[in-house]
Amino acid sequence: MDTEEFRIRGKEMVDYICSYLDTIRNRRVFPGVEPGFVHGKVPDNPPIEGEPWDDIFADVENIIMPGVTHWQSPRMHAYYPALTSYPSMLAEMLTNAINCLGFTWASSPACTELEMIVTNWLGKMIGLPNEFLHNKDSNGGGVIQTTASESTLISLLSGRSVTLQRYSNLQPDVPLFEIHSKLVAYCSDQAHSSVEKAALIGLVTLRYVESDAEYSMSGSKLLEAVKEDREKGLIPFWVCTTLGTTGCCSFDDLQGIANVCQQEQLWCHVDAAYAGCSFICPEFRKWLKGVDKIDSIAFNPSKWLMVHFDCTAMWW
Q1: What is the dihedral of CA 131, 272, 82, 250, to 10 degrees?
Q2: What domains can you pick out in the chain, each with its CATH number?
Q3: What stretches pass through the bilayer (predicted)?
């Protein structure tokens, strides 16, 4: 495909996307297919030579679309919202064309600086303290991650690293693996499954704290669990506070939990993946009381803010 054909096909794709979204309510939301339905319709072996675009694109409607769950349909009520918008689609097109990696400032200066500015915008929009923003008076800042699950893992690994270093300095004769084996992380019994996965990857014990009648984890219950584990010779080190749980959108007691974390020297992470967008509205920020005492927080603009998945904003 050369430049001229790309111009033509690009316009055709825009027309197809517009038609798809304009008529999406007429499509069956969940496909009536069985596992393995694509097999037999697509060759087992890759083509030796390229094929005409028309032949390839014909497979989209004939093979792919019959097996798509249409998340953008107004009749789609499963999972969480995964919204999109035409400006976001255009931005995706441009970023894919530029196709740079922003792992350092030098690898793409505009990429790094724009990320800093946009995460500052988002942080201000939801009312984060100045310590979480990129500025000369702060050691904190935001980054764009792929998912809240990834952010939870990064937070846990960060808390683990800080704790291992602290205990290693206090007990230089104790092997690092022995300290590691005693680490305990905490979350509500309503927390997302990604917390358990993060603990498995981080090779630490995860303890679920029983939620109350409002399906919320309290600071007092957390403190009880921490004290019990310390008496057993274990090392509490990290807590995941959920603001907007997956099952029922309940909110943990952030203020009480943050106080316990400060008192016990625990890393306090806030998973606001779903509900974080709502903090743009000042009337919902009562759930954020105590945010000035936490270590990290993440939420997903890709849920309510009309940008594509995957997009998670994380600050620490």
Answers
A1: -160
A2: 3-78 (1.20.1340.10), 110-315 (3.40.640.10)
A3: none
User: Residue 60 and residue 12: Cα distance in Å, rounded?
Assistant: 13
Lookup result for tokens 């109350």 = 212
SS3 content of the chain, % helix, strand, coil (to 5): 50, 15, 40
C-beta neighbour count of 256 within 10 angstroms: 20
78 burial (CB, 10 Å; 0-12 / 13-18 / 19+) is exposed
Residue 81 confidence (pLDDT) above 80 = no
Closest CA to 141 of 153, 156, 123, 163: 123
Residue 137 banded pLDDT, cuts 50, 70, 90: confident
Q: Single out the residue of 123, 65, 67 nearest to residue 298, CA to CA.
A: 123
Report the DSSP pairing between strands 183-188 and 235-242. Answer: parallel
Give the model's pLDDT for residue 79: 83
CA distance 63 to 33: 11
CB 214 within 8 A of CB 249: no
Structure tokens that stand for 265 in this block? 């020297």
Rounded CA separation 132/139 (Å): 8
Q: How far apart (Å, rounded) are the C-alpha atoms in residues 182 and 166? A: 14
Lookup: tokens for 180: 């590691």
**Mean of per-residue pLDDT scores for the chain:** 95
CA-to-CA distance for 310 and 66, rounded, in angstroms? Answer: 24
